[in-house]
């Protein structure tokens, strides 16, 4: 819940003047729902894509206050699903998350399935189990033919900057988690798919840490949180990604 539509528009203008995406680099912006329509009319889609932060999984109906993914078609190319704040602040269930993934796919919007263990799960040595369960549940309705339409974002809850007790994840921790993710995907859908599915990392990503995270084998991109709200910081992250992509 950051930026009014007007503020979001000004922010996009700043980014548009300063960022040249380059080859093989895609930048996706996920504004609040009230700013989506404004930005969809302003955005250069060769430069940026848009994502929804949230949606309801039914395509239409009497669900006052909700917005369906079918209503987002034409506005966004991506949608976040299972973000830790949706799981742990708004208590979204595994069924909600698996239905959202399926709804996004059938509406030709790429779901970014967010997974990651809590502080307690990490302390108890349950990282593998947590990742396994979230993948199994989140992808329950996804066929082998559609799995290439899904992006996985690993965001350990204990490392997210909005968590007051956050501790930046070490490269070794992320490397181990990514290997777990790709192994489980491989068991579910085949080794080749496990090796090739897109995996992002999110958790205290900023201009100082982005390069190190992008150097981790198996990380294809970043899910940037609070650092994306500051134009200078976000532009620096993009420049780092461009440098790694040459």
Helix fraction, binned, reads: 40-55%
The structure class reads alpha/beta
Shape: globular
Quaternary organization: single chain
Biggest sheet overview: 7 strands, parallel
Task: Give a structural overview.
The chain is α/β, with parallel strands linked by helices. It has helices spanning 5-18, 33-42, 84-88, 94-106, 119-123, 127-138, 171-189, 191-196, 210-214, 231-244; strands spanning 28-29, 49-52, 78-81, 110-115, 151-154, 199-201, 221-222. The mean pLDDT is 94.
Give structural attributes:
single chain; 7-stranded parallel beta sheet; 246 residues
Quick summary of this structure?
By secondary structure, this protein is α/β, with parallel strands linked by helices. Helix content is 42%, strand content 10%.
Secondary structure layout plus pairing:
Elements: H1 5-18, E1 28-29, H2 33-42, E2 49-52, E3 78-81, H3 84-88, H4 94-106, E4 110-115, H5 119-123, H6 127-138, E5 151-154, H7 171-189, H8 191-196, E6 199-201, H9 210-214, E7 221-222, H10 231-244
Parallel strand pairs: 1-2, 2-3, 3-4, 4-5, 5-6, 6-7
Helix pairs in contact: 1-2, 6-7
């Amino acid at each position: 819940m950051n930026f009014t539509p007007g503020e979001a528009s000004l922010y996009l203008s700043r980014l548009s003047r300063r960022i040249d995406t380059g080859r093989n680099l895609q930048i996706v912006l996920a504004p609040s729902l009230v700013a989506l329509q404004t930005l969809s009319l302003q955005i250069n889609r060769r430069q940026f894509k848009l994502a929804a932060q949230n949606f309801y999984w039914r395509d239409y109906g009497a669900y006052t206050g909700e917005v369906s993914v079918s209503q987002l078609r034409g506005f966004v190319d991506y949608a976040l699903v299972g973000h830790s704040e949706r799981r742990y602040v708004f208590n979204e269930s595994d069924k909600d998350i698996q239905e959202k993934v399926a709804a996004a796919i059938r509406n030709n919007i790429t779901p970014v399935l967010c997974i990651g263990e809590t502080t307690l799960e990490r302390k108890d040595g349950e990282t593998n189990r947590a990742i396994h369960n979230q993948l199994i549940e989140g992808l329950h309705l996804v066929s082998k033919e559609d799995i290439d339409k899904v992006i996985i974002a690993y965001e350990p809850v204990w490392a997210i900057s909005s968590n007051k007790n956050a501790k930046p994840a070490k490269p070794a921790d992320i490397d181990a988690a990514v290997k777990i993710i790709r192994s489980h995907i491989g068991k579910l859908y085949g080794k080749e798919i496990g090796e090739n599915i897109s995996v992002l990392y999110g958790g205290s990503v900023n201009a100082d840490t982005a390069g190190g995270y992008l150097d981790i084998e198996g990380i294809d991109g970043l899910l940037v949180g609070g650092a994306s709200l500051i134009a200078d910081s976000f532009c620096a992250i993009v420049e780092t990604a461009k440098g790694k992509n040459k």
